[in-house]
Amino acid sequence: TPQNLGSNVNTEGDEAFPYLHSSGSLFFASTGQKGLGGFDIFAAPKDGEKWGKLVNAGYGINTRYDDFSIAWLPGKAMGYFASNRSGSDDIFMFKRQMNINGVIVEKRTGLPLQGVAVTVLDASNQETKYITDAKGAFSHVAEWGKEYLIKADKKAFLQLRERIATADVGPM
């Protein structure tokens, strides 16, 4: 017997086009959740026997038009969805990009450090090097399901080493 998924998913508006991602998150389109307009695509992570807090897919996938019917390619951070943003229902491809964004600050003052040499090392020992900007910031394009070692080094400062894993980062 079909069971209603409850008020966290269903609203007074319309919910349609369900898709269960391999992560366990339920993707669907809704006109009743707070969004950008028309149908918007949302993800609800599985939380035990219930669905967790909804995440709006955000601008790019969602627009002021109807955006619906998302499908992910298995094991990939990309997929397809439908939208009427071009005046008729069309299919669009998307690719999610993950960034590791960091800001290096001086511990005592909390002020950003410009000119810090940052090395991002992946599991295959491939290095990518950055120099922090005036705001102490750097950004690295990362992949899902990987582990990275971040090293920050500047003369007269202790070297910082931090491990970051993207294995638990969900699709949205």
Bin the helical content.
Answer: under 10%
**Parts with pLDDT < 50 across at least 5 consecutive residues:** none
Q: Strand content of the residues, in percent? A: 35-45%
Task: Quickly give the structural class.
Answer: mainly beta
Q: First CA to last CA: what distance?
A: 30 Å
Order of helices and strands: EEEEEEEEEEEEEEE
Number of strands: 15
Main sheet attributes: strand count, strand direction, barrel closure: 4 strands, antiparallel
Describe the oligomeric state of these chains in a short phrase.
Answer: single chain
Give a topology summary.
Layout lengths: L14 E6 L5 E5 L9 E5 L1 E2 L2 E2 L3 E2 L10 E6 L5 E6 L6 E6 L2 E6 L13 E6 L4 E5 L5 E6 L4 E7 L6 E6 L7
Antiparallel strand pairs: 1-2, 2-3, 3-6, 4-5, 7-8, 8-9, 10-13, 11-12, 11-14, 14-15
Structure overview:
There is one protein chain. With 172 residues, this protein is an all-beta fold. It is built from no helices and 15 strands. It has a four-stranded antiparallel sheet with strand order 1-2-3-6, with no helix packed on it. It has a four-stranded antiparallel sheet with strand order 12-11-14-15, with no helix packed on it. A three-stranded antiparallel sheet has the order 7-8-9, with no helix packed on it. The model has no long low-confidence stretch (mean pLDDT 92).
